[in-house]
Fold this sequence. Notes:
Layout: H1 2-7, H2 10-39, E1 44-50, H3 58-69, H4 82-90, E2 95-102, E3 107-114, E4 117-122, E5 128-132, E6 137-138, E7 149-153, H5 169-182, H6 185-190, E8 191-196, E9 202-206, E10 212-216, H7 221-239, E11 244-248, E12 256-259, H8 271-277
Parallel strand pairs: 1-3, 4-7, 7-8, 10-11
Antiparallel strand pairs: 2-3, 4-5, 5-6, 8-9, 9-10, 11-12
Amino acid sequence: MLKYLHNIRWNRVLYLSLFFLGVIAVIIVMSLVNRKDDLQVCREVNIFIEGKEAFIDQGDISALISKSYGNIIGKPLLDIPLEKIEKTLKKLPYVSKATVHLDMDGILAINIAQREVVMRVINKNGREYYIDLNGLKVPTTLKYVPHVMIATGNIEEGYKNPLDSINSTLVKDLLRVTQFIENDELWSNQVVQVFVNNDKDIELVPRVGNQQLVIGTADSLDQKFSLLQTFYKEIIPKVGVDAYNKVNVKYAGQIICEKRGVWTFDDLHNPEKKVKNNTL
């Protein structure tokens, strides 16, 4: 008997015993944690909204969650459908991203990134919508009106569903023109609106002066705006801001100016002729 006991590998027995005791301890701890989770409830909901727009606020999100899932405060943590809440938030047309997290302290954290719009379209039938940075349509709301470029005139494309993509070349061109203007300090200060005339040409509505600034399509924008800059820097100082009715740069490398009234450059130096011709 003593010889049998001597042959037993006590180190191995000790390791096995410790292993099984560890497994039992883990099972006990997990059961206690699960029991705690079953009893723990949501104590607080924190809502964080990112972005420069203000289409939605914390009250809107809180009201939507309460309407869809009831009162979250006081609800057991295991009963809070995190994935469903995320999907509900992502369906909002003003939301680009949404994440929902729940920690062991019972705090529900909701992080939302709003869509950034760059243009407001009012089509020929009076239908309005915004276009965001990704070229998706966003509905207008009376709650918030962002300070963005407005496109009006002979625009046929309308609005059906939130986040529809642009489907016409014209509106895509309007978006390109708008973004070009917004990225240039000079033109963002000078242009207040873009307009589509009956020929489907894009025009710029200037802050100073009342002439038509026709650029046509969104091709060669660097060249076209360079020509317009030449017009404002070299021609306007000589003839006055209202001397021309229309300035057309839609054709490559050309500035075509249409006079307002009847006058010549000689008239600019002869006040009597200028009054007689009723120009400038």
